[in-house]
UniProtKB/TrEMBL annotation:
Presence of the UniProt keyword Cell membrane in the record: yes
Subcellular location as annotated: Cell inner membrane
Record key words, sorted: Cell inner membrane, Cell membrane, Membrane, Transmembrane, Transmembrane helix, Transport
SUPFAM superfamilies named among the record's database cross-references: MetI-like (SSF161098)
Alphabetical list of PANTHER family matching this protein: INNER MEMBRANE ABC TRANSPORTER PERMEASE PROTEIN YDCV
Alphabetical list of InterPro entries matching this protein: MetI-like, MetI-like_sf
Ranges for domain ABC transmembrane type-1: 66-260, 345-543
GO cellular component: plasma membrane
Membrane topology annotation: Multi-pass membrane protein
Domain of life, source organism: Bacteria
Source organism of the structure: Bowdeniella nasicola
Name of this protein: Iron ABC transporter permease
Presence of the UniProt keyword GTP-binding in the record: no
Length: 555
């Protein structure tokens, strides 16, 4: 009888763990997304109407924007992969003095908010920057370079971690049979790496296609992508139907990219028998090209923009000064915003903490449910569908999420227009899939024998859940919370729609400052970017120090 009651309570807990996140997803994702899609297919009166599609598709600018989005994302992905493969080999297959420092430097760009990346490259390429002579400011090349800066580390890490665990004896056997180094790489190593390369490339394409802050700052109106055009149509022209149509187009692009990433990830999980421990060697003469390419990328593409950003933040009108940092605490230093940058930083931290807390609660509940091991095929299929359902926000741009909130959370029964919780909820929707992706591999890695032993010793299902799963969740949950906090801290896409003028976040303040021509505003934008980058990097350094080996990632 007691065992039956305990089992019943366990099922109730799992039902609640699945039900509450579903309610959250329905209210703050499905409803706004469905309303947004419907806006593109219906007229103002609510009747079926495809005229918006016809009107938007008839504009030459629409096709130019779609072409630019796909073209720049493709170029950014191709260059990231071409530079990332030598980097993966140099940093994960070679052991040389300072390789850990080089890995840390390469990891920095990926944790930086896109607004900071855009400001860093603008400071490098704009008049007065170290690379001003190249005259690349406002060009496609500048935008693609910033995309590569942001995504290079993703390719290096995902490909490098797999490469380090490939058995070198296969290549040695090919060389013994007369294959040249290039032929051995092309016929033995590259096919083994292809699943990781394809998975990383598809995710890089996703990030390049949704690099809102980078494109908005470096490209402006002339080099608008689908995301930045949605922002301009909504905030400048109030053309919500056209923005809804472009949002639907973007959903299709991102859905295809996610589908490719999912298939590549499945292939990488089951394609190879890997060494349990990473393998690396002391570099030789044959490794010089990969090491040289990696050194040039690290210095020229990663270190230089960050160094230029820091340098410009310490100068105004050509003179060294700390005025840019002092002005961050002065609400009257600029007319770009109503509050000081320090107040905006406080708002960002508070909003990010709330968003991370919401995302962690929802993500833990989802991860606990989708990592169960049911015995029947029907239940396994149901959990697979549930898992895919909670990954849907990963396939929707943050701009689309913010736009969806804008047109749904403005009337009863859920009028949040004046509520402080509007921005944390939107940021939590963006962060939930990330939390699930980090926690799920940790829970799936738990040996079933641990649970079986605990149950044999008399522990109820709930006690097993608390003592076995709970123990693993404590550390992994901290990592997931840190990732969610860093992502929310730099989130700009959804927040740009929803932040109120009297309580902007720091990324919104940076964009407003960098959009003004004055030396004071430009200097403050550089200083605020350094502060935001330092906050995000500090969080990620702490996260990486406690990251479990089984924790998931992006690709």
């Amino acid at each position: 009888m007691a065992a039956h009651v305990a089992e019943r309570r366990y099922r109730v807990v799992l039902a609640v763990a699945a039900g509450l996140p579903l309610v959250f997803l329905a209210l703050f994702f499905a409803w706004p997304a469905a309303t947004l899609v419907a806006r593109g297919f219906t007229s103002e009166a609510g009747s079926w109407d495809l005229s918006a599609f016809q009107e938007v598709s008839a504009r030459p600018r629409t096709w130019r924007i779609i072409g630019l989005t796909l073209g720049m994302a493709t170029a950014g992905t191709a260059v990231s992969v071409l530079l990332g493969i030598p980097g993966a080999y140099a940093l994960y297959r070679c052991r040389f003095p300072g390789y850990l420092l080089a890995r840390a430097i390469v990891a920095v760009p990926f944790v930086l908010p896109t607004v900071v990346v855009g400001v860093a490259f603008r400071s490098l390429l704009a008049p007065g920057g170290w690379l001003d002579f190249l005259q690349l400011d406002g060009t496609v090349t500048a935008v693609v370079a910033a995309m590569v800066f942001f995504n290079y580390s993703l390719v290096v890490r995902n490909v490098g971690m797999l490469w380090a665990r490939l058995d070198p004896r296969q290549v040695q056997a090919a060389r013994a049979l007369g294959a040249t180094p290039l032929r051995a790489f092309a016929t033995v190593t590259l096919p083994s790496l292809m699943p990781a390369i394809a998975s990383a490339a598809s995710v890089v394409f996703l990030f390049c296609a949704t690099a809102f802050g980078i494109v908005l700052i470096l490209g402006g109106v002339e080099l608008a992508t689908i995301e930045s055009e949605i922002y301009l149509l909504t905030t400048t022209f109030l053309d919500l139907r056209a923005a809804a149509v472009l949002s639907i187009v973007q959903l299709v692009v991102i859905a295809v990219s996610l589908a490719v990433a999912g298939q590549a990830r499945k292939r990488s999980e089951r394609a190879l028998n890997l060494r349990p421990d990473p393998f690396a060697h002391t570099p030789g003469r044959a490794d010089v090209p990969a090491l040289a390419i990696t050194a040039v990328v690290i210095v020229g593409l990663i270190v230089m923009p960050v160094a230029q950003l820091l340098w410009r933040s310490l100068h105004r009108a050509g003179e060294f000064t700390l005025a840019n940092y002092r002005d961050l605490a002065d609400a009257g230093a600029t007319r770009a915003v109503r509050v000081s940058a320090v107040q905006a930083a406080g708002t960002s931290i508070l909003v990010a903490l709330l968003a991370a807390a919401i995302a962690l609660v929802v993500g833990v509940a989802v991860a606990l449910v989708v990592t169960r091991r049911p015995r029947t095929r029907a239940r396994r299929r149901a959990l697979a569908i549930l898992d895919a359902t909670f990954m849907l926000p990963l396939g929707v741009s943050a701009v689309t999420v913010g736009f969806g909130f804008l047109i749904t959370m403005n009337r009863p029964p859920l009028d949040l227009r004046s509520s402080f919780w509007l921005v944390p909820l939107a940021q939590a929707v963006v962060a939930v899939p990330l939390v699930v992706r980090i926690l799920s591999p940790v829970l799936r890695a738990i040996s079933p024998r641990q649970r079986e032993v605990a149950a044999t010793l008399g522990a109820s299902p709930l006690r097993v859940l608390a003592t076995i799963d709970g123990a693993h969740l404590l550390r992994a949950g901290g990592v997931a919370a840190g990732f969610a906090l860093a992502v929310s801290l730099g989130e700009f896409g959804a927040t740009s729609f929803l932040a109120r003028p009297e309580s902007p976040t720091l990324p919104v303040v940076i964009y407003r400052l960098i959009s003004r021509p004055g030396a004071v505003d430009q200097g403050m934008a550089m200083a605020a970017s350094v502060v935001l980058a330092a906050l995000a990097a500090t969080i990620m350094v702490l996260v990486e120090r406690t990251r479990p080996a089984q924790a998931g990632g992006f690709a």
